[in-house]
UniProtKB/TrEMBL annotation:
InterPro entries: GH, Glyco_hydro_17, Glyco_hydro_17_plant. It comes from the Eukaryota. Belongs to the glycosyl hydrolase 17 family. Keywords: Glycosidase, Hydrolase. Coiled coil: none annotated. This is glucan endo-1,3-beta-D-glucosidase. One of its GO terms (biological process) is carbohydrate metabolic process. Its EC number is 3.2.1.39. It comes from Populus trichocarpa. The keyword Hydrolase applies. PANTHER family: GLUCAN ENDO-1,3-BETA-GLUCOSIDASE BG1-RELATED-RELATED. It catalyses: Hydrolysis of (1->3)-beta-D-glucosidic linkages in (1->3)-beta-D-glucans.
Length: 331
């Protein structure tokens, strides 16, 4: 929602429906957006902003937050998930001070949802980025950084107990643009004609699968085993503003992503990957320049690419209005 030229919430909902987008990620409980979502049928991943984490480590504040932003809209708004914080890392200087509040806030929001009897309908988790991974290659060797394990282990334990997926923001773009010498563009865009990485008998033809499977391997090493699923809570490719950013690359990535996530990864084959596209709109108030160009749509509501969200498959989109689009076919 970080733009001064974006359509009002009611028009955004109409645009979702027009394009058969069935799920939305909101990064904070924007009241106009939540009111517009009433009776829309769109399923919502609702974010607890990072700035609220410390407050929600108090159980009564978490109860109030859930009451005001979830229960007051349920069931006319179809909440699917609550994401307690986004990309908090104990070793990232910008967010490290919030890390001690993530687990208490997560547990408190979970308990508030459970107290309302909704723990089976609304799953409560956190969204991480891939900087928490220390070893990603080959995917079977995936492991978290040693200095984040004490942060993540109890969170993974809680998610396993609550039978809730972990949310992960996965961008092949940043891996490619950061290391184009070793990571090819076709491998990053799902356009490689053949397997490029063999790992323990599994063949990897694209970087997205390799990144996701390295995360699964890391979770297994933390005791998440095969019980913990991952929902890809953001993925996308910018169309301008940086290395490798073209409209062609972005459109290729998104259309291939939509097609690909129906099928699972080499480590978890045959199981569709619930995936949210970042983002619904270009956002002209973001920095750096690259961050302004992740939209699947322009602010005038025109599609930037020829993407098929619909038909008999239920695809979803996200708008960092703070919103993200979901790409997964029915689980």
């Amino acid at each position: 929602m970080m733009g001064n030229n974006l359509p009002p919430a009611t028009e955004v909902i109409a645009l979702y429906k027009q394009h058969n987008i069935k799920r939305m990620r909101l990064y904070d409980p924007n009241q106009a957006a939540l009111n517009a979502l009433r009776d829309s049928g769109i399923e919502v991943m609702l974010g607890v902003p990072n700035s609220d984490l410390q407050r929600l480590s108090n159980p009564s504040d978490a109860n109030s937050w859930v009451k005001n932003n979830v229960l007051n809209f349920w069931p006319s708004v179809k909440f699917r998930y609550i994401a307690v914080g986004n990309e908090i890392s104990p070793v990232n200087g910008g967010t490290s001070w919030m890390a001690p509040f993530v687990l208490p806030a997560l547990v408190n929001v979970f308990n508030a949802v459970r107290a309302a009897g909704l723990q089976d309908q609304i799953k409560v988790s956190i969204a991480v980025d891939m900087t928490l991974i220390g070893t990603s290659y080959p995917p079977s060797a995936g492991a978290f950084r040693g200095d984040v394990i004490s942060y993540l282990a109890p969170i993974v334990g809680h998610l396993s107990y609550a039978k809730t997926p972990l949310f992960a923001n996965i961008y092949t773009y940043f891996s490619y643009s950061g290391n184009p010498r070793d990571i090819s563009l076709p491998y990053s865009l799902f356009t490689s004609p053949s397997v490029l990485v063999w790992d323990s008998g599994r063949g990897y033809q694209n970087l997205f699968d390799a990144m996701l499977d390295s995360l699964y391997s890391a979770l297994e090493r933390l005791g998440g085993g095969n019980t913990l699923d991952v929902v890809v809570s953001e993925s996308g490719w910018p169309s301008a503003g940086g290395f490798g950013t073209t409209s062609d690359n972005a459109g290729t990535y998104l259309s291939n992503l939509i097609r690909h996530v129906k099928g699972g990864t080499p480590k978890r084959p045959g199981k569709a990957i619930e995936t949210y596209i970042f983002a619904m709109f270009d956002e002209n108030q973001k920095q750096p320049e690259l961050e302004k160009h992740f939209g699947a749509f322009s602010p005038n509501k025109q599609p930037k690419y020829n993407l098929n969200f619909g038909g008999h498959r239920n695809w979803d989109i996200s708008t960092e209005q703070n919103v993200t689009v979901s790409l997964k076919s029915d689980m």
